[in-house]
Specification:
alpha+beta, Immunoglobulin-like, 8-stranded antiparallel beta sheet, 8 strands, LEA_2, Water Stress and Hypersensitive response domain protein
Length: about 160
Amino acid sequence: MPRLLLTTGLLLGLVLLGLGGCAYMGVRTEPPRVHLVGMQLQQAELFEQRYLLRLRIQNPNDFPLNIRGLDFQVQVNGERFADGVSSQTLQIPGFGEGLAEVTVSSSLWSLTRQLRDMGEGGLEQMEYRIFGRIALTGHALPVSFESTGDLGLFNPAR
C-alpha cells in the first residue's frame, strides 16, 4: 500500500509538472531584433583589440523582455570579426526598444583578414552579421537572434 501511494504521488507530481510546463510554453516569445548602431575602438594590443558596441534591441512582443545576458558573434563581410558576452541587465518594454553597450574582442588575425580584403577587393561597403543568444529572466532557454546590415564606412553620403 505505501508503495502504491508513493507511485501514485510521483505520477501525479509528473503530470502536474508537465501541465505547468505546457502552460509556460503557451507564451510564444518572438526573437528580438538586434541592430549594430555604433562601434568604437577601446583598446588595441598586439594580439587583441577591444571594441565598445552599441546595440539597439527591439522587442516585437506585447510583453517586456527582461534581459539578463547576451552571448554573440559579429561577422564582417562573411568573416568572423569579434565575439562578445555581457551580463548587463536590461528591460525592453513590449513593442519598445533599448540600447545596450557591450564590449567585444577581436584578434589580430581577424583584423588582418579584414584589412587584406579591403586592399584586395576595393570594397564599396562592409556588411555585418550579428547573431547569438539572449538569456531572459523567467525563461529556461535563451532566445536566438540574428541581424545583418551595412556598416556604411565607405559611403560618405549616408
